[in-house]
Amino acid sequence: MKLIINNKEREFPEDITLQEIIQSLEPEINDPKTVLCVLNGTLVNSPFNYVLSEHDIIRVLPIPQGG
């Protein structure tokens, strides 16, 4: 299934969850506790167990951590 992740089209298995996609991203944005996730224009919350469809648009943005 083709999904658009952070403006890049990527191929994924049909049964992948949004949680698994987030975990597959770069280390700085792959922790579900430190990201904002937008699915087709709607802000979604953890746990990211949403059903995905072909050509869904997903934006995963890191939340800056103090320190």
Task: Provide a compact summary of the structure.
A hairpin with a 2-residue loop joins β1 (2-5) and β2 (8-11). The protein is mainly beta and 67 residues long. Helices cover 9% and strands 33% of the residues.
Q: What are the key terms here?
A:
single chain; 67 residues; mainly beta; Ubiquitin-like (UB roll); five-stranded mixed sheet; 9% helix
Write the layout of secondary structure elements.
Layout: E1 2-5, E2 8-11, H1 18-23, E3 35-39, E4 42-44, E5 57-62
Low-confidence stretches are: none
Helical content, roughly?
Answer: under 10%
Q: Would you tell me the structural class of the helices and strands? A: mainly beta
CATH superfamily heading: Beta-grasp domain
Q: Major sheet, described briefly?
A: 5 strands, mixed
What is the straight-line distance between the termini? 39 Å
Class in CATH? Answer: Alpha Beta
Q: Would you mind describing this structure in some detail?
A:
There is one protein chain. The protein is mainly beta and 67 residues long. The protein has a single domain, classed as Ubiquitin-like (UB roll), CATH 3.10.20. Helices cover 9% and strands 33% of the residues. The chain has one helix and five strands, in the order ββαβββ. A five-stranded mixed beta sheet has the order 2-1-5-3-4, with no helix packed on it. The radius of gyration is 11 Å and the shape is globular. The termini are far apart. 10% of the residues are buried. The mean pLDDT is 88.
